[in-house]
């Protein structure tokens, strides 16, 4: 493959709630489900991307994420599954589908999230990654991403084979796609077919009508356990039967089919070969237990919000409120992150300098589990709840969100800050920032900057001194190693902006930057 497999479309948050039913509700003749377990997973385009990544592909997902807890959860799940997220903004809430299940059967599906929101503009990096893709899968769930004009222009211009999995509420595919992958019911909604014909004849007529209307190379209509029917320019369709009749949970089978076909085309397969491989893979997926057994291990739930003094500024909801308000007014979102174990003057100076670069500062704080994984069993010294409260009490900090992973990449994919700040000792020998987060920031046009650190302050040194002497005072030692290296105090106070105007990122004031401009 010459480039990544790119998935474009709407991502939902799916939750399966498992339970047992032993009684009826006393005030209504409906079963009562006693929950025993639940699992979250990406749905829609996110599920297709996870399937592709699980098969070893380099996968990019261009999707819209909302400024809410659901969006943060999706960012964690996708990053944990090895998917590179190129996020668009999303006005409105995260769409969620909750399936209530007992003994492997779905009793009820509860949808929430409201009407489809409006996706934001894609970054130049997102458009470039579509141009260099080895294959593109458009996974349309009718919520607006496939309608985005700039994305549609990029999809029409790419030389990569494009697979389009349509939705009746979505737009027409761009002209020239290699393969459309609707199911039977979608074909009947998209194309008017004369009733009374056999199942295969109805599928074939609908597929040919859709192929001609959308000027597609081929259409593969999925037929559930009976395989798929492939229609192309020739007059005779091809029936690809499933290798065996598989009964089970079919949730996600269409996404599995489309993802497999896309991977096959990326490797240079013919469309007929790609459809045969997709039928076999989707059938094996259902027979093997479906989505419950096919996905990688889920990441831990989001760390809970901190209650008590300062708690209103800690957690995903707090960060979402701050970020959405600043974005609505056209301001600049700044973020920084680290362990912040034993908060000291160097930390405060860095945070003050970071806050001066924009209109809000969100601190991404490593959870206790994350710190232990990075620093060893003796760390952190201060638990995450106390560390979060101390940071939230600073006037230069607008919100704190805690993350469990070893890196803040998932949190950044959700926050989409305009500026990410680290200390000056992260600059490389050539003067360029050696920041692993810089590449992530480029996905949405963000900017990674470094600021000078306040020398002679080190959490590690403070801990060592306290353990050896019983006191911890000003120490000489290496610059901070466990969090954002500190910067000199910012003039004008922790939260002041000169002239009171909305702040914009000014890379020249902070040190070397990436080549991407702020959005």
Q: Give the % helix.
A: 25-40%
Mean pLDDT, as a whole number?
A: 84
The span between the termini is 31 Å
State the low-pLDDT regions, or none: 471-519
Please compute the radius of gyration using only Cα atoms: 26 Å
What class would the helix/strand composition place it in? alpha/beta
Can you list the strand order of the major beta sheet?
A: 5-4-1-8-9-10
Determine the strand fraction and express it as a percent band: 15-25%
Strand segment count: 18
Biggest sheet layout: 6 strands, parallel
Q: Identify the overall geometry.
A: globular
Q: Work out the helix count.
A: 17
Word description of this protein:
The chain is α/β, with parallel strands linked by helices and 519 residues long. The chain is built from 17 helices and 18 strands. It has a six-stranded parallel β-sheet with strand order 5-4-1-8-9-10, with helices on both faces. A hairpin with a 5-residue loop joins strand 11 (219-222) and strand 12. The longest helix is centred in the middle third of the chain and has 17 residues, at 271-287. It is globular. The two termini are 31 Å apart. Residues 471-519 have low confidence and may be disordered.
Lay out the secondary structure.
Blueprint: E1 5-9, E2 11-24, E3 31-44, H1 45-54, E4 59-66, H2 69-80, E5 84-90, E6 96-102, E7 105-112, H3 124-131, E8 135-139, H4 149-157, E9 162-165, E10 179-180, H5 184-190, H6 199-214, E11 219-222, E12 228-231, E13 238-240, H7 253-266, H8 271-287, H9 291-294, H10 316-328, E14 333-338, H11 345-355, E15 360-366, H12 368-375, H13 384-392, E16 399-403, H14 409-415, E17 419-423, H15 437-442, E18 447-451, H16 459-469, H17 507-510
Helix pairs in contact: 1-7, 2-14, 3-4, 5-6, 7-8
């Amino acid at each position: 493959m010459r480039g990544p497999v790119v998935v474009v479309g709407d991502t939902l948050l799916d939750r399966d709630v498992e339970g047992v039913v032993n009684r009826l509700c006393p005030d209504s003749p409906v079963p009562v489900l006693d929950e025993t377990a639940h699992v979250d997973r990406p749905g829609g385009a996110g599920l297709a991307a996870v399937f592709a990544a699980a098969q070893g592909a380099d996968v990019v997902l261009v999707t819209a994420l909302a400024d809410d807890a659901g969006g943060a959860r999706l960012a964690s799940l996708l990053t944990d599954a090895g998917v590179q997220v190129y996020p668009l903004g999303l006005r409105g809430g995260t769409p969620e589908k909750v399936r209530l299940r007992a003994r492997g059967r779905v009793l009820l599906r509860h949808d929430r999230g409201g009407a489809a929101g409006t996706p934001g503009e894609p970054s130049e990096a997102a458009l470039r990654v579509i141009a260099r893709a080895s294959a593109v899968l458009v996974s349309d769930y009718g919520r607006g991403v496939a309608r985005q004009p700039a994305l549609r222009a990029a999809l029409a211009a790419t030389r990569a084979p494009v697979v389009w999995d349509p939705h009746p509420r979505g737009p027409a595919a761009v002209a020239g796609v290699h393969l459309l992958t609707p199911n039977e019911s979608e074909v009947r909604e998209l194309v008017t077919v004369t009733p009374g014909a056999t199942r295969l004849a109805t599928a074939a007529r609908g597929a040919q009508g859709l192929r001609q209307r959308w000027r597609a190379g081929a259409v593969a209509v999925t037929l559930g356990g009976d395989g798929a029917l492939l229609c192309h320019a020739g007059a005779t369709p091809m029936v690809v039967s499933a290798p065996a009749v598989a009964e089970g949970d079919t949730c996600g089978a269409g996404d599995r089919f489309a993802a497999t076909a896309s991977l096959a085309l990326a490797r240079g397969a013919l469309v007929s070969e790609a459809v045969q491989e997709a039928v076999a893979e989707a059938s094996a997926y259902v027979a093997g237990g479906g989505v419950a057994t096919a996905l990688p291990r889920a990441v831990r739930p989001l760390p809970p919000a901190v209650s008590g003094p300062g708690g209103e500024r800690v957690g995903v909801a707090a960060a979402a409120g701050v970020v959405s308000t600043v974005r609505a007014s056209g301001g600049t979102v700044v973020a920084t992150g680290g362990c912040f174990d034993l908060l000291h003057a160097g930390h405060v100076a860095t945070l003050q300098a970071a806050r001066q670069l924009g209109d809000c500062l969100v601190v991404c704080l490593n959870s206790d589990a994350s710190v232990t994984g990075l620093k060893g069993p003796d760390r952190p010294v201060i638990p995450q709840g106390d560390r979060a409260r101390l940071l939230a009490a600073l006037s230069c900090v607008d919100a704190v969100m805690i993350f469990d992973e070893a890196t803040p990449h998932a949190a950044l994919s959700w926050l989409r800050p305009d500026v990410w700040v680290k200390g000056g000792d992260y600059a490389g020998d050539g003067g360029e920032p050696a920041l692993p987060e810089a590449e992530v920031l480029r996905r949405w046009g963000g900017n990674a900057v470094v600021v000078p650190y306040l020398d002679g302050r080190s959490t590690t040194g403070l801990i060592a001194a306290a353990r050896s002497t019983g006191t911890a005072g000003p120490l000489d030692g290496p610059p901070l190693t466990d969090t954002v290296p500190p910067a000199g105090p910012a003039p004008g106070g922790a939260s002041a902006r000169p002239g009171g105007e909305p702040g914009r990122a000014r890379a020249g004031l902070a040190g070397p930057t990436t080549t991407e401009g702020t959005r």
